[in-house]
Description:
One of its GO terms (molecular function) is transaminase activity. With 465 residues, this protein is an alpha/beta fold. The chain contains 17 helices and 15 strands.
Amino acid sequence: xxxxxxxxxxxxxxxxxxxxxxxxxxxxxxxxxxxxxxxxxxxxxxxxxxxxxxxxxxxxxxxxxxxxxxxxxxxxxxxxxxxxxxxxxxxxxxxxxxxxxxxxxxxxxxxxxxxxxxxxxxxxxxxxxxxxxxxxxxxxxxxxxxxxxxxxxxxxxxxxxxxxxxxxxxxxxxxxxxxxxxxxxxxxxxxxxxxxxxxxxxxxxxxxxxxxxxxxxxxxxxxxxxxxxxxxxxxxxxxxxxxxxxxxxxxxxxxxxxxxxxxxxxxxxxxxxxxxxxxxxxxxxxxxxxxxxxxxxxxxxxxxxxxxxxxxxxxxxxxxxxxxxxxxxxxxxxxxxxxxxxxxxxxxxxxxxxxxxxxxxxxxxxxxxxxxxxxxxxxxxxxxxxxxxxxxxxxxxxxxxxxxxxxxxxxxxxxxxxxxxxxxxxxxxxxxxxxxxxxxxxxxxxxxxxxxxxxxxxxxxxxxx
Length: 465
Ligand SMILES: Cc1ncc(COP(=O)(O)O)c(C=O)c1O
């Protein structure tokens, strides 16, 4: 057994954490002073911390635990696979059963001619693969200069140098010498924050046409691909107006631009279909997958590519791969996760029962004085906090100040709900029951009321001019 167990007192664990563990996307000095919460176990939609508190996880971890926590089947499969073949690679004329079976299963689930999978350890690695895939594809087709990838401001595609370059998070671009060359960003379709006087439909078209303008400006013979999340997740669950995606598809088709759908969050049931691309009605050439592929029980991701790309790439030595590409234990766990999603008809149940139930309650949140827009697709949803609904006003305070207060109220009420700037987002496990949804809303309402009181008390209920 490991030396550290769940029975060590919380303050000792916190002290060790602060001394040695660097947290992602955190100011570690502040965390150390505040003391982090130690999560010790989880079941269904609930986490338990080292003080024995049950916390409702409305984020499914990091948007990933689609089948919920505590499924023994995945643990059993992992143990069996570790005993049989804990590791082997697929680099040098070898393969193994879990990678074969998982690739075949993904090809069966993915729409159209998306039939080939290049495995990675997670979404960031998979998007790095995509950069090399699309550039190699066009080079092999005799167009090596067709290498610019267009993405969107406020997109999230991962945290490695390549994937963070594809992403459009200003804070990330400010550190570490990114973006890499030949990545171009256009504006996002966030009507609530940026739509001005346009109707959502007009705004959707305007933002989609920025892709066409960028292609014409950069040159059709220079643009390799457009990458986007069907529904932006980490950017704040931004749902594009209905006019947006058909126009994007038209533009990609017209200018022979590869369309990469980053399905890392949207894939595997999150939007009420197996893939977000089906929900928004697009036909990508490549899909990025991770998270819900294994419901987060093991780290695994990948790129699903269509027949044409696989054929072109297959004609050359693709000098790319990761030690853990198609890791047998992760692949076996993912396969078991997909079996559960499919056999228990979880995606159908989300579409027909859980998501409609959640939607009705979610949209009613706009009755709360602090809530402007409420958006939801399947089991991912967001609300925009605002000091004035009628004018869709932003707060005068530094963006994120109010969201942070609200998130802390949720946390104190044992509810994990994330803030992105001054938007609050959820992405709960897909297996959430109506009773658990009801319980979640009890905590959401209490947290919103407390946040409103706190914001008012701090004098923050003011609109930006
Ligand atoms: C849309 C999207 N793409 C890529 C990633 C990166 O995946 P990972 O953290 O597994 O590297 C994320 C992570 O949140 C994501 O939301």
